[in-house]
Amino acid sequence: MYTTQEIVRISKLYYELGLTQQEISEIENISRPTVSRILDAAVKEGIVTR
Prior knowledge:
Blueprint: H1 4-16, H2 21-28, H3 32-44
Helix pairs in contact: 1-3, 2-3
């Protein structure tokens, strides 16, 4: 569905840089719900922990 590279990139923007999902959606030119789904995938795949 999403590549590991995409998940890591979005996760870094959100968790390390502290950008909002809306800001990430504007930067990456994707919808805010898609950002949310990618962040959920990051947790499910064990890339990040909450």
